Amino acid sequence: MAKVVTESFRIESTNEFVNSFGSDAGNEYYIMGSSIDKQDTISNTQSSIREFQRRVIFGNKLTPSNVRFMFNINPWTSGTVYDSFDDIQDMNTKNFYVTVLDGPINETSYKVFKCIRNNNRSPSISIPSTALDENIYETTEEDGYVWQFMFAVPPADYIQFATSTYLPYVENQFVKENAKQGIGDIVIDTVPAGHFSGFVIGSSTSPSGAILNSATRLNETTYQVEIICDQETKATAGAYKNMILRIPGEGGADGNVYEIIDSYASNDVTQTKRINLYIKTPAFDNTRINNAVEIAPKINITTPDDAQGTQAIAYGVINNEGTLTAINFKDKGSGYSFATATLQEPGKSVPTTVENSNLRVIHTPTGGHGANPVHELFMSRVETVTNFVSDVTTLTPSTNTYTKVGLVKNPQFEKNSTAALTPGSTYKITNIGGNDDQSVWNIIAGTTGVVYSVGDIFVCQSVQTTDGGEAMILPSTFDNRVSLTILNSLVTPAQAQPGFYVEQTHENGQVASGIIHEVESIDFNFDGTPDSTRIHLVDTTGDFSVNFDNNINITIKEDKDSTSTTLANFNIDAVDLETYQPYSGELLHFVDFDPITRTDSSKEKIKLIFDF
């Protein structure tokens, strides 16, 4: 029994992950920095996960703008034979799309093209044109390749997200809206060689070509036209019936096509290179007289299964030997979920398929080419990105080191009563309150008539008191260090410096402890001169159940060793505890590395790529 897990399964998993970042999904994601030192190599164990969560130092919140589907960069290369889209092939194993940089790097976009036709597997020597007409996204190049424009990746996006291997996907709404499900191409599986040898009427460069000599209207639906050929024509009446007269360039780049409903030779028996055709059309452009025309094999295509669809129209291309070499389109039609095509035998009174010929319709993906690039280009990779930088927009520390980063889903942060919220900050409701007072919540959030419930997110506009109402802050950036403020005292390096051990013994004998991350002199009295000290600690969560508290002395030692000499004792005047609640949230991914030192000018771009 064969079993196939389709690529769509992986892509749907990728989609669900990306969608979980949306504002309506109810999730919060953070990239966090952890661990000032690399005590051991991380592993996929609960111990490593808890150690990361125990030692978190800082972090940034992710929004949908920080997340992108990613796909492989595949620069167009001259001479390469690219694979054209085929609905009976596993395209994930094919080289079927290219990326084209539309000018100087970091100034112009990458444009992405999907190969629809490869000119019978010829080398591609014409780069896909990046000069696209509005609403026309399928282009044919001089080398016979047909490319579907999918989307562009602007500089701002690839500068932020690109790696040496991947580019980010950026949706092009116009391409999606113009995508059309139906017939993508028609290929020749089998055809008799030289079957149309008697219909080669043109020159060596245009086997089916001739010159339009005259056109006469016979009735409301029929014209009689005379064409002059380079080769002798068939004298038998009706020989060209069920073929196509094509006038290149008329009515668009592909030209107009007309069904030949009958034919007869010239009345002048000396004019063996002239033929009269009856074509089915209500109107004809007489200005095309003396222009080149072609007589081509007719391709019969079934009608659309959608009653509102339009009929596809195609014609054959023959070589000098009269062998069918390609199928071209006047119109690919619309409303096709399934179609078949047959090669028509000329001169028959009823439609007849050429014996031993088989044409195969290639159907587009669901929705059409360009409707769903994530699925069409098999984007089962996702990147999240954030910048760790210390400036007025962030709370990222500008000193010391970190050795791990990780992606944490739905971490828990500090919770406050509604009377202790900070206007301008973002919160998630954790307790609606005993009276479910919606009017008060609307005042807090600055809204009218909204019904709030647990889990709803709002930006605080006003501080109000509720009966037990509570909300958890959702910081866009956070500093998770415990900060101890010592007023009117400047601590010396001999007394305290990064790496020293700090402990505080409570009345119940429990000891809170941590490692100094930064010693900061502050101007508490705002007179321009530093007069106080703030000591920032990490590793303040461990085998103890108490937090640092003010008005209790701390003891500072070089290390935790019980025999280590006490360097200083200070009374603590204020304490700012961790924002992130240790061990909370789901650590989805984390990496470790040698210590990265942070400074005022440091900027680290953190990219995490997930391959589903």
Summary keywords:
Elongation Factor Tu (Ef-tu), domain 3, mainly beta, six-stranded antiparallel β-barrel, 6 helices, seven-stranded antiparallel beta sheet, 612 residues
The gyration radius over C-alpha positions equals 37 Å
Query: How much is the average pLDDT?
Result: 92
Helical residues, percent: under 10%
Sheet bearing the most strands, described? Answer: 7 strands, antiparallel
Q: Which structural class do you get from the secondary structure elements?
A: mainly beta
Low-confidence stretches: none
What fraction of the residues are assigned to beta strands by DSSP?
35-45%
The outline comes out as: elongated
Q: Give the count of helical stretches.
A: 6
> How do the strands line up in the largest sheet?
32-31-28-29-30-27-33
Structure, described:
Among the domains are: 189-363, no CATH class; 415-474, no CATH class; 481-576, Elongation Factor Tu (Ef-tu), domain 3, CATH 2.40.30. By secondary structure, the chain is mostly beta strands. The radius of gyration is 37 Å and the shape is elongated. It has a seven-stranded antiparallel β-sheet, with no helix packed on it. Strands 10-11-14-13-12-15 form a six-stranded antiparallel beta barrel. Strand 6 (138-140) and strand 7 form a beta hairpin. Helices cover 8% and strands 38% of the residues.
